[in-house]
Amino acid sequence: MQIVETLNEGLKRAYTITIAAKDLEARVDAEVKKIAPQVRMPGFRPGKVPANLIRKMHGESIHADALNASIQESVDKAIRDNGLRPAIQPSIDLNDDYAAGSDAQVTMSLEVLPQVPAPAIDAITLERLIVEPGDEAVNEALQRIADGQKSYETAAKSYKAKEGDQVLIDFEGKVDGVPFEGGKGEGMAVVIGSGQLIPGFEDQLIGLKANDEAVIKVTFPAEYGAKDLAGKDATFDIVVGEVKKPAETKLDDDFAKSLGLESLEQLTGLIKGQLEQELGGLTRTHMKRRLLDQLAAAHDFEVPPSMVEAEFEQIWAQLQQEASQEEDVEAAKAEMEKDREEYRSIAVRRVRLGLLLSEIGQTNGVEVSQQEMSMLVAQAAQQYRQEDRQRFAEYIQKDPMAAAQLRAPLYEDKVVDFLFDKATITERTVTREELEAAIEAEEDGAVGGSGGHVHGPDCDHDHDHAHDEKPKAKKAAPKKAAVKKDAEAAPEAEAAPEAAEKPAKKAPAKKAAAKTEEPAADTAEAKPTAKKAAPKKAAAKKA
Questions:
Q1: pLDDT tens per residue across span 431-466
Q2: CA distances from 63 to 31, 70, 105, 347, 392 (A)
Q3: 498 vs 173: CA distance, rounded Å
Q4: What is the pTM of this model?
């Protein structure tokens, strides 16, 4: 075997590997002798089939296996002997004119990981913004729970329904006076003003009393799920069964017991603990972004273009997916295109920070323990059916790439915690609004997220790690977007779909995030019900 370096430029390397024909032939001979005792052929006793016949029957596949094994061994030797640390899986090419019986010439090209300079971590200074969950915040959270558990009490028969009341109705829908399939129901509970029904339907329930009959006129939206009704005028003959008024929910021990707790004091304690955890998460997000900004500013070294390209492609795919859900898809994509180079810069930053965090972790002995890894596997397995969880655990155990992907986010967090311990940290008590404003200012003013590819000490450096960066497509709006690390998950839909749905009404997006509308699901039935879609985060943010 002969290995000759043909390229050494920056992080790019290339080698020509020559595997002698005699070495391949020796490997084939050894394999023939190995399988000979198991070969069965009519006219020969077991284990007595001549080698030339075995070659005739299985020679092609044996030679292919021998060639592949020799190539793999030579590639491993080239990497080992030259002290290479591949950034991605090397590209291996066998010469086109190769034929059995001749030398095999293989070209190996790859990019290697850079030599990361000794990280400057002794001068890191951070500010921890602390928010105390006050009584007002706890009480507001308790009230939200109470509102979510809202109950209704039957009003007097003379009581006229108003916004916020619940009305029980029987209904039958008609188009051009003819009932349509799926348009009839009994005892449906509708809260006036909830946006549960087709636009204009709920408003016409205001003023009705128990046992009243009415004809409600509506127009199905043009994008309605049932295509035969989309855009058509319709009427609904309704009969009001009863009208119910919201019942006052008292925040007392009985309320807490209705939730399965012992007392209001216990419920209050749980709420306060959840708020502390939530606010602590915001504090950590702010500190982590400041930490990564300082690391990025203090370190500048070449990164493998292939890793940058892989990171950029992942960012771009996520942005395209988000853009496809915008009202004006073309405008959203045009906005993306204007900032293509900005997103590529984000990819560079991510890769560089990932390599930097990896170097810090390895240099300082940061690792994910076997116990922690077992917990990660158990948590990830929960998304599968009970009967599939063991198979998932076995898959993670056998596949180093899958294990590394699962381990990477925790490894990054442990490196970040190590850096927090090393940093000089001052503390300042602020309001929640001030903390959120500080995070928003970072999102608006900076480019890039943290390193998505954090290579742990057991990483082979030839694959992508899983990470929690979720870039979001921009809307065609003036505000710039960056890529966010530790991104919040998009809120779930506010209501489960009923038998029929209309295009979702826009719900208010969270602060500092553009809105997108969730498309309604198609359905065959057509009742006057529709779900409301929750807002999706449209702005890509930075860590």
A1: 999 999 999 887 655 444 444 445 444 444 433 333
A2: 9, 10, 15, 43, 35
A3: 16
A4: 0.64
